[in-house]
Amino acid sequence: MKALVFERNLPRFAASRVASVFGSGRGAGIGPLQLLDALPPEVPGSDWFHLRPLLSGICGSDLATLDGRSSRYFEDIVSFPFVPGHEVVGVLDDGGVDYAGTVLAPGTRAIIEPVLGCAPRHIVPPCPQCGSGHYGLCGNIAFGEISPGLQTGFCAGTGGGWSAAGLVAHRSQLHAVPDGFSDEDAVIVEPTACAVHAALSGDIQPGDTVAVVGAGTLGLATIAALHHLIRPATSCTVLAGAKHPHQRRVAEAMGADTVVPPDQLARAVRRQAGSLVLAGRLTGGADVVFDCVGSSESLTQALAMVRPRGRVVVVGMPAKVSVDLAPLWHRELTLVGAYAYGTESTTGPGGEPRRTFELAIDLVTQAGLGSLVSAAYPLDRYEEALVHAGAAGRRGAVKVVFDLRNRKGHNR
Amino acid sequence: MSPRPGFVLEVDRSTPPTLYWHGERFRMERLPEGSRVIYAPEPLDPLTDPSAAIRHALRHPLGDKDPLPALLHPGMKLTIAFDDISLPLPPMERPDIRQLVIEQVLDMAAEAGVDDVELIVALALHRRMTEPELRHALGDRIYDAFAPNGLLTQHDAEDPDALVHLGLTDQGEDVEINKRAAESDLLVYVNINLVAMDGGHKSVATGLASYKSLRHHHNPQTMQQSRSFMDQHKSELHSANWRMGKLIADSGVNVFQIETNLNNDAFPPAFNFLQKREWEWGVKDRLAYLGASKALDRTPAKYARQIFHSVKAPHRMTSVQAGEVEAVHAVTTDNVWKQQGVVVEGQTDILSMGLPYISPYNVNSILNPILVACLGLGYFFNMYRGKPLVREGGVVIMSHPTPWEFNPVHHPSYIDFFEQVLSETTDPIEIAKGFEESFATDPWYIHLYRTGHAYHGVHPFYMWYWCAHALQHLGAVIIVGGDPAAVHRLGFRVASTMADALEMANDIVGTSPTLTHIHTPPIFMSDVQ
Fold first, then answer.
1. Which of B415, B423, B442 minimises the CB distance to A274?
2. Are strands A48-57 and A399-403 parallel, antiparallel or unpaired?
């Protein structure tokens, strides 16, 4: 069976980086990613299960890794060779047990929560972050019984979603797919969870003005999270910058009050906030800005449109960026990251804290986020798939996925 | 030979192609046989001695007003207000009429021993003029005598300390105007009349007013009820200004109105072909057209714009009258009609027009899409008496590149209006209800209006309201050669050629429509019978 394998290979890595100058994903055919014959990974322990992927998404972080644009920060927290793919819905052919201890019958569809924290690594006692439910912040992601890797899809020992041979998932990672969920609904849960976590990290107060920079999958899901999870309690106003017409349409459908092209966002925020402008920055501005891109430009834009003592939440994965931090210092801004997911302060009906993935599953239903899946490719057309994903916005797409259901692929 | 009156040409097989302005370029269009082309009257002969005419007007006022020298005395407070950069178009060659008139007023004031004199640019909610623009309008002598001492100011409609509320009209309209002007013993207003809308009570009641006052007549309802606002007697805009003017007079503000008429000689000799009828073009005109046209086609729009904005018009004064506002304005209006009036028989299904690079609100700036709409549907459409040139449900075809381009210094609120308001709705009534107040009170726009050279935050709304009558009246608006995104944002249709535009218009007005083209420059008023 075939799998896309990412190997540590410096000449191929350099070739991919050069090719990416012509567009993200362009280096797929000459880079460190190769379509190889693969066997299913070994199960590391009795609480691990085989999962056969059905759909597996292509994330911005995957593209950054393939393009050689991701930060060297990650070098020690991945292990080679690895099979990418951390947005996964698959089938437990042999059954399993989920994060809550529920037994899942053979043939059950499941989503994986890909963070490889203390539980999958069999580290006892868990680190303080895992102990308090913040698995995404686990300090042990390079230790324990499996290879280093912050997530499934970046770890040599677990396999990843871009594989017909399948992957292995620890019970703490498994969430059964709800009845009525399509595979597309299921595969969008992981990025939705990132958006939910980001929205809940915004510390948004009643009446706040919120700006969202970027309208890819993360940006759109963040808008949906703000609309469904935050707005009911805060009546916040959400403004979004979206580059492409279809993104603008979807952003509006997801609940943004105002959607404008990115170069108009600062002006729209200024109008909403009634701010003045000084040295290219708003004197007032948005209370909270979500940067769902993570580039130098988007961060600069975010810092220029947030109010003094406002908050910028970095949602999109940044690499090495060049940003003037003088306004951060002078205006006492808060710059926070929002990575992955874990347990949120939002409580369930019994008062128990809810996992981000649970909230994300609810949100996918409420907002119809499965519709963000725009195109699916079989694994052997991975070069096309990655080029499509790298140009998703321009080509009218949002989320591009691999379809491992023995179908030929399709475009929505 | 006396100047020829306006003329309506019926296009036949022998008619040469018709010249259209197209922003900073020209187009030649061969119009269908049977189309009408309206040409303006030729420029009236100017006054041979403008200075003497001004002196005479000041000493022999119209209406119930004493001669100006009799109104001047030592110890009095004298304010001279004058029209801003929006007039005339293009800006005239030196000396500007304002300079000629104000010099004589100042001479008389000096002779009478008046030493408390201030000059105010009556810019209402327009942008502040720059020093070079003020020097051009007033001359260096006046500028240097007044500006350094703070005696030449620009009306600030947002300075509460510089405004005074005079009361409400019988229709409940606030009248709030410039305090210095209102509290002077004499307010001399110096007007340049280029179109019939200008002058009269509108000079003070609008030019020196605040937003609180202006909103009563600068609104869609007023504009829809003005048929048209170029015809004072059928203009609700003017009715409101006249009510306010009466209240201003009743409040004791002593206005001495000076109005001037210009001929329509709008472009220097190098552009003579613009104002000629095409079949009368000589070799020189053809060469000038070809040279200008080819050169402009090769010149980036930005530089072509600079070239055109450096053009100064050889306008000459044809009359000057002074005294009581209404008596003066009646004469002025008659004179406007003498220069600009053309009798036209009947309406048309399609009205076409070529739009130039300039309007009253973009001198030394960009004719942005909102101003394109305003120039075509606000000004050219409304330049009628009787009934509109185009029938109800008819089509206007405008030719202009309509770039999605704005001058951020002059038109900051226009950018937001275009991006945020017109993307929601193009209905003037909805726009007024939903957005006007927030733009009018936006502190950033107010700051830029007061300290920079920006039009007031509410100004793009007024430009859109100016289109309200046309938008209500027309079946469609088509812009030939416009930027599709910008044209669609305006709610109009875009065509790449005149032939395409005519075909599109057929869907609205039928397959055998009548077409009338208004040939500008120069501008004219149609008296539609």
1. B442
2. antiparallel
Domain around A210? 193-344
Give A268's contacts in chain B (Cβ within 8 Å): 416, 419-420
Looking at the structure, tell me whether residues A134 and A224 fall in a common domain. Answer: no
- pLDDT exceeds 70 at position B202: yes
Q: Do residues A104 and A24 share a domain?
A: yes
CATH of domain B7-43+340-528: 3.90.226.30
User: Cα distance from B159 to chain A (closest Cα, Å)?
Assistant: 18
The span from the CA of B85 to the CA of A90, in Å, is 71
pLDDT of residue A407: 57
Q: Which residues of B touch A264 (CB under 8 A)?
A: 419-420
- Pair A183, A35 in one domain: yes
Same domain, A182 and A220: no
Instruction: Give SS3 for A281.
Output: strand
The pLDDT assigned to B273 comes to 94
Q: Which of A297, A312, A344 is the last residue of a domain?
A: A344
Question: What is the model's pTM?
Answer: 0.87
- For B207-259, how does the pLDDT look when each residue is reduced to its tens digit (9 = 90+)? 999 999 999 999 999 999 999 989 999 999 999 999 999 999 999 999 999 99
Cβ–Cβ under 8 Å, residues B29 and B17: yes
Using a CB-CB cut-off of 8 Å, the residues of chain A touching B434 are none
pLDDT at A412: 53
Say yes or no: A229 and A130 in one domain.
no
Distances (CA, A) of B45 to A304, B94, B128, B360: 58, 18, 33, 24
Report pLDDT digits (tens) over B307-319.
999 999 999 999 9
- Kindly list the residues from chain B whose CB atom is less than 8 angstroms away from the CB atom of residue A305: none
Q: Which of B420, B423, B444 sits opposite A276 (nearest CB)?
A: B444
Per the CB < 8 Å rule, is A274 touching B420? no
Is residue A36 included in any domain, yes or no?
Answer: yes
CATH number at residue A140: 3.90.180.10
CA dihedral B330, B336, B337, B338 (to 10 degrees): 110
What's the rounded Cα separation, in Å, for the pair B366 and B362?
A: 6
Is the previous residue joined to B88 through a cis bond, with omega within 30 degrees of 0?
yes
Answer yes or no: do A24 and A171 share one domain.
Answer: yes
For the segment A27-75, what is each residue's pLDDT rounded down to a tens digit?
Answer: 888 889 999 999 999 999 999 999 999 999 999 999 999 998 888 899 8
Examine the domain organization and report whether A180 and A212 are in the same domain.
no
Total domains, chain A: 2
How far is Cα B218 from Cα B225, in angstroms, rounded to an integer?
A: 12
Quick check: A271 and B443 CB within 8 A? no
CA angle B471, B475, B479 (to 5 degrees): 75
Q: What is the number of other CB atoms lying within 10 angstroms of the CB of residue B433? A: 12
Could you tell me if A310 and A235 are in contact, meaning their C-beta atoms sit under 8 angstroms apart?
no
- Average of per-residue pLDDT across A211-236: 98
Q: Does the CB of A253 have a partner CB in chain B at under 8 Å?
A: no
| B34-to-B255, B342, B351 alpha-carbon distances in Å | 50, 19, 13
Q: If you search the block for the tokens 């009534």, which residue do you land on?
A: B429
Q: Which residue of B has its CA nearest to A259?
A: B420
Q: How far is B377 from chain A (nearest CA, A)?
A: 27
Measure in Å the smallest separation between the Cα of A218 and chain B Cα atoms. Answer: 24
E strands in B5-136: 7-10, 18-22, 25-29, 36-39, 77-82, 116-121
- B chain contacts of residue A263, beta-carbon cutoff 8 Å: none
Q: What is the ipTM of this complex?
A: 0.78
A199, A181: one domain: no
Question: Per-residue confidence at A280, pLDDT binned at 50, 70, 90?
Answer: confident
Q: Residue A326: count other Cβ atoms within 10 Å of its Cβ.
A: 10
- For residue B424, give the chain A residue with the closest CA: A258
